[in-house]
């Protein structure tokens, strides 16, 4: 059987077609090495483990988490053979992996956004005391969502909840949540409050809520935001940028809605104070 014959350009094009067919996208985990940004536009680094190393490329505008050499990350990418015959990964999304890398990325991005004033108390808005319509962004299959809805139902009635089901962990979660925020902000009749919730988990599970694009979307929301992610000891950048931060999804329901029993008691108390005055008149 005769081997196919190619020009160099046709060979590279053919190999890329084969890669695109075989691997529409791959997820690869490794350690960052030789990270650099060229001309303020192009990001290059190697992704390595103890067995191999592969070159990676992406545009700087797509870099949504700070990177440094030595950080462990997970990337979603497309394999490609460059015109110079070098195999590389074109990066589409990045997620820090492991407590040390997540913490480092968190601190770097926190310092950057804090310097821009995104966490400043003066830019925070108050939530309506008795919202009529509430947008909820969460996984409807999660325990955190179930806890939120249970407490909300117990505290107050007559509230309309519009729920946007999303993934709340993993490499695709930030984009899913950003789409949900955009959806609510583009409604002709906006909701009164926007709630983003997810229950507890590991640092890896909550890493999606430290994504720069997601944090900026929460900051830019035209609807006041309430974020309740993780347990009381957990802090994400989404928590810090929200108008109101809740310690847990259950606490988010408590902050969002008044307690009908407390309200009834207050009304009865006020009536008891007013009744003698009305009788005297």
If you had to describe this structure to a student in words, what would you say it looks like?
With 281 residues, the protein is an alpha/beta fold. Helix content is 37%, strand content 26%. It has helices spanning 8-22, 99-115, 143-155, 173-185, 203-206, 212-220, 237-241, 249-256, 260-280, and strands spanning 26-38, 42-48, 53-59, 72-81, 87-96, 133-138, 160-165, 193-198, 225-229, 244-246. Strands 1-2-3-5-4 form a five-stranded mixed beta barrel. Helix 3 links the parallel strand 6 and strand 7 (160-165). Helix 3 (143-155) packs parallel to helix 8 (249-256) and helix 4 runs parallel beside helix 6.
Give a summary of the structure in a few sentences.
The chain is α/β, with parallel strands linked by helices.
The total strand number stands at 10
Individual helix count: 9
What is the overall silhouette?
elongated
Strand content bin: 25-35%
Helix percentage range: 25-40%
Class of secondary structure makeup: alpha/beta
Report the radius of gyration as a whole number of Å. Answer: 25 Å
First-last Cα distance: 110 Å
Largest sheet: 5 strands, mixed, barrel
Query: Widest sheet: strand order?
Result: 1-2-3-5-4
What are the secondary-structure elements, in order, as H or E?
A: HEEEEEHEHEHEHHEHEHH
Average pLDDT rating: 90
Low-confidence stretches: none
